Amino acid sequence: MNHLDLFKEKNIIAELQETDKRGVLEEMVDYAVSSELLAKTKKKAVIEAIMAREQLGSTGLGNGIAIPHVKIKGFQGDLSLVGRSTRGVDFKSIDGEHVSIFFMIVSSTEDAEKHLSILQWISGLARHRDFKSFVLGASDAKEILGILKEIGS
C-alpha cells in the first residue's frame, strides 16, 4: 500500500486556528466534514472516539508531532488529515514540548493491520531530521503535500 494515497491537498490544514488540545481535534474533524472527507453523521462519534483515545495517553510523540488516531467499529474507509500550527499547541506530549504537526488517522477496527502500517509510516516521517522544519517552513497545503511526497516515498 502506498500511504501517500491517503493524503491529498484537501486533507491538509495549512494553519490550525485552535490553541488547545480539544479545540485542535474538533477543528480537524470539523474541517473533515466541511471538506466532505467525513460524513456529518459521523462527526460526533469520531470526536468522542478521538477524545477517549487521548484519555488513555497523549498521542504526542515528541519533537512537535502528534498522531491522534483511533479505530472505530464499522467505520467505512479511512480519514487521514494533516494539520499544522506554527505557534504550537500544548498537547501533553511525551517530551512536554508543544505540538506543531498533527496527523489524524481514523480507520475501522476491521483493518487493524492497515491502521498500524499507517502509524508506522508517519512515525518514520517524524524521525526524519528535517521533516518538522520543512513542514513549518512550508507556505501552504500544496507545499506540505510535496514534503510528504518527498520524504515519505
Write the layout of secondary structure elements.
Layout: E1 12-13, H1 21-34, H2 43-56, E2 60-62, E3 65-66, E4 69-72, E5 79-89, E6 99-108, H3 112-127, H4 131-137, H5 141-152
Parallel strand pairs: 1-5, 3-6, 4-6
Antiparallel strand pairs: 2-3, 5-6
Describe this structure in words.
By secondary structure, the protein is of the alpha/beta class. It is built from five helices and six strands; from the N terminus they run βααβββββααα. It has a single domain (7-148), classed as 3-Layer(aba) Sandwich (Mannitol-specific EII, Chain A), CATH 3.40.930.10. It has helices spanning 21-34, 43-56, 112-127, 131-137, 141-152, and strands at 12-13, 60-62, 65-66, 69-72, 79-89, 99-108. The N and C termini lie close together (11 Å).
Features of this protein?
single chain; 153 residues; alpha/beta; Mannitol-specific EII, Chain A; 5 helices; globular
- Uncertain residue ranges: none
> Number of helix segments?
5
Q: Which second-level CATH architecture applies?
A: 3-Layer(aba) Sandwich
Please identify the structural class as seen in this structure: alpha/beta
For this structure, the CATH topology is: Mannitol-specific EII, Chain A
Rg, rounded, reads: 14 Å
Helical residue percent band: 40-55%
Beta-strand percent range: 15-25%
Helix/strand order: EHHEEEEEHHH
Q: Give the integer mean of the pLDDT values.
A: 91
Spatial separation of the terminal alpha carbons: 11 Å
Q: Rough shape?
A: globular
Largest sheet, strands/sense/barrel: 6 strands, mixed
Instruction: Report the strand count.
Output: 6
Q: How many domains? A: 1
CATH class: Alpha Beta
For CATH, the homologous superfamily is named as Mannitol-specific EII, Chain A
The oligomeric state is single chain
